[in-house]
Design a protein that fits this description.
Blueprint lengths: L3 E4 L2 E4 L4 E7 L3 H6 L1 E7 L6 E6 L5 E3 L7 E6 L4 E6 L8 E9 L2 E4 L3 E6 L1
Parallel strand pairs: 2-11
Antiparallel strand pairs: 1-3, 3-8, 4-5, 4-9, 5-6, 7-8, 9-10, 9-11
C-alpha cells in the first residue's frame, strides 16, 4: 500500500512561483520502480496530465506547461516535486500526485493552487 501526500500549494500572483512536493509512504524500492506524475483539475473541468517522470527518469510535459514547470524526483526521500514558474491564472486548479504501479494507480488528496491576476 502506498500513500501520497502533497504539499506546497497556495495563493500566488500571476508571474510568481510555487514548488509542490509529494511524499510517498511504503518501501523505497517500490517507490523507485513506479512512474510518478502530477495532474490537475480545475473547477468544472476534467483532470488533466501536467507532467510525468518515469522510474528511469524520462520526463514528459503537457504543452501548456513546457518551459514553465519542472518535475523531479528524489527516490531516497520517496518524494517528487513540481517547480512551477511564470504562473498564470489559468493554472489555478487542485494539483494531484499520481503513482503508477500498474495495474494499481495511487493518488494523493490534492493541493490547491490559486493564481490571481
Amino acid at each position: 500500500q502506498v500513500q501520497l501526500v502533497e504539499s506546497g500549494g497556495g495563493l500566488v500572483q500571476a508571474g510568481g512561483s510555487l514548488r509542490l512536493s509529494c511524499a510517498g509512504s511504503g518501501s523505497t524500492f517500490l517507490f523507485n520502480v513506479m512512474n510518478m506524475g502530477w495532474y490537475r483539475q480545475a473547477p468544472g473541468k476534467q483532470r488533466e496530465l501536467v507532467a510525468v517522470i518515469t522510474s528511469g527518469g524520462t520526463i514528459n510535459y503537457a504543452d501548456f506547461v513546457k518551459g514553465r514547470f519542472t518535475i523531479s524526483r528524489e527516490n531516497a526521500k520517496r518524494t517528487i516535486y513540481l517547480q512551477m514558474n511564470s504562473l498564470k491564472p489559468e493554472d489555478t486548479a487542485v494539483y494531484y500526485c499520481n503513482a503508477d504501479f500498474s495495474p494499481t494507480i495511487y493518488w494523493g488528496q490534492g493541493t490547491q493552487v490559486t493564481v490571481s491576476s
